[in-house]
Specification:
With about 120 residues, this protein is α/β, with parallel strands linked by helices. It folds into 2 domains: about 55 residues, 2-Layer Sandwich (Signal recognition particle alu RNA binding heterodimer, srp9/1); about 60 residues, 2,3-Dihydroxybiphenyl 1,2-Dioxygenase, domain 1 (Roll), CATH 3.10.180. The chain is built from 2 helices and 8 strands; from the N terminus they run βαββββαβββ. The strands form 2 sheets. The protein has a 4-stranded mixed beta sheet with strand order 1-4-3-2, covered by helices on one side. The chain has a 4-stranded mixed beta sheet with strand order 5-8-7-6, with no helix packed on it. The longest helix has 12 residues. The protein is globular, with a radius of gyration of 15 Å.
């Protein structure tokens, strides 16, 4: 089994599309409307998909995703790219786990993204 997609409600759909396209190389797969508000599916067929739904509701009242876990092929290069773009690292930077390293960043809506050096922490 593998994750097919994550569904995220957002107040900033265009900022979210730009963020994930620029930093995770995800492309628009589908665009449309749901309840007269825009939605978009972005992703990569060999990685993962995000379904982004525009909402005008306060995000504080909606269920939140704890974090999105993403494994990158070149951890150090990706970390350097994040630092060069001045994206803040959460939780004081690198987190060292027994078999893997991770760092955490946030997208424009504050959803946390864990970037890991090893898939599945191994």
């Amino acid at each position: 089994m593998k994750i097919d997609h994550l569904n995220i409600s957002t107040n900033k759909i265009n900022d979210m599309i730009q963020f994930y396209a620029e930093h995770f190389d995800l492309n628009i797969v589908e665009e449309g409307e749901y309840n007269e508000l825009p939605h978009v599916i972005i992703g990569h067929p060999e990685r993962f998909y995000l379904c982004l739904y525009q909402t005008h509701e306060s995000l504080d009242t909606k269920a939140r995703i704890n974090h999105i876990g993403v494994n990158v092929t070149d951890f150090d290069t990706f970390l350097n790219k994040v630092k060069a773009k001045k994206i803040p690292l959460l939780y004081n930077g690198l987190t060292h786990y027994p078999q893997s390293d991770s760092f955490y960043i946030a997208d424009p809506d504050g959803n946390e993204i864990e970037i890991s050096s090893k898939f599945g922490g191994r």
